[in-house]
Amino acid sequence: MGWHRSKNSLRYAIALAVFLCYLATAFMVFFARVDSAVNQNTVELLQSNVQQQSYHFEAVIELQFNTLEVASSYIGMQPQKLTVEQMEDILQSLSSTDTFGRTMLILPDGTGYSSDGIVTQVGDRAYFQTAMSGQRAMSNPLSSSVDGDNKVVLAVPVERDGQVTAVLGGSYDVGALSSLLFADIYEGKGYSFIVTADGSIVSTGTAEADWSERYFFDAYGKVNFSKGSLDQMRTDFQNRSSGSIIVDNQGVGSYLAYEPLDCNDWVLCYVVSEEDAKAGYEFIAHYELLLGAAFLLGVGALLVSIQHINARDRRRLMRKAEEDSLTGLLNKESTARSITDWLNEERCKGYQVLLMVDLDHFKEINDTYGHATGDLVLKKTAQVLRGVFRETDIVGRVGGDEFMVFLKNVGNPEVVQRLMSTVNSRIRGISVDEIPQETLSCCIGAAFYPRHGKDFTLLYENADRALYEAKRAGGNGHAVFQAEG
């Protein structure tokens, strides 16, 4: 007795250990799934936001260039050289729109006349030289003397008679623009950078630290990467590719996503803390429910599995017993039983139709081409019947080449004629490689409930009579039972 008790205790201990292992695994899977899902959703949303804002940034810059080009076209169309007063009026007009901090008209010798009355020599500036060659140009803030670090010069050529006669430029605050773009994301708790491909900082949207003398890659070379790497960022910046990283700076996690801009070789970056990025993920409650379900599954999994297996096997056996093994349709007994059961249901209302379908000259096909070919014909006929009739209709094989179809609750009797014609047509369209010179056909007989019978036996007999009427008419057709007298 003690030996049996010890043996049972060992079994219970093993079962308990297995159960505890299951729970531990469920916990680990749960937390891993939560963390993975949050990170994936956060990164995807962040990258999508940065991509959208990069498009917006480029559209705004394009608008500013268009504004300058409208003014440059006006200057170029003037019949004579502008006076100093006229230049000042045009520049003041552009500056008064709050688009540009100030504007400047630069003569071919590099002398620039600004809207605030300052005369500057910018002949050695790259943006001036590019614009003099007939192209748009945008300076980097570090090479611009206009209004501070976060402002750049947008410059367009002024052309007269196909020749560049001057350059029109305007200072624009790209730092303010990049900060404004992200103001409504994560409640404005993140901040943006504009960085060149080599890591020089063009502008920054944060006042928490002074980045004016700092190098982007140097700053991120001092943090730990949870996702991505410094080399990956360098490569992406050089290849003009978008991407994202996750960093851990002294225990504070942050997400950084970046997208190349179609301005110089700049890259738009956006940084947000892990805490702010993950705030509001209410879907975690869904995983908590999964955890509760895991407890229940651990207790009931074995019983449910056994019950499921037994029920599945019973259904499989019942289905096999009801099916015709060749075609997968109901066999003769199941077809008759299903029709009888339906006729006794309250849902059986209005017209019901029993169809008998018989292939023409099937015996000759079997005798000439063999039973394997005949079986193939029967399978393809079954496929036709499944395709023509509804899933709720009863379709079975009740003899060698005889099929039975029962249409439930037919609203319009005329539909039956069309369906029988469709079956005739599709049977003729069956293609069997083994009998290339044969055209298949069938005959169909129909009997209507309750007009031609109120039980299965009488409907079957009358549909069979209609079938043979169709055969006597030469085959390849259909007929509806006609009561004598």
TrEMBL record:
The keyword DNA damage does not apply. InterPro entries: dCache_1 (IPR033479), Diguanylate_Cyclase (IPR050469), GGDEF_dom (IPR000160), Nucleotide_cyclase (IPR029787), Rev_trsase/Diguanyl_cyclase (IPR043128). The chain crosses the membrane at residues 12-32, 289-310. SMART domains: GGDEF. It is found in: Cell membrane. Residues 350-483 form the GGDEF domain. SUPFAM superfamilies: Nucleotide cyclase. Its main location: membrane. Gene3D superfamilies: 3.30.70.270, PAS domain (3.30.450.20). Pfam families: dCache_1 (PF02743), GGDEF (PF00990). GO terms for molecular function: diguanylate cyclase activity. It is a multi-pass membrane protein. The keyword Transferase applies. NCBIfam families: GGDEF. PANTHER family: DIGUANYLATE CYCLASE DGCM-RELATED (PTHR45138:SF9), REGULATORY COMPONENTS OF SENSORY TRANSDUCTION SYSTEM (PTHR45138). This is Diguanylate cyclase.
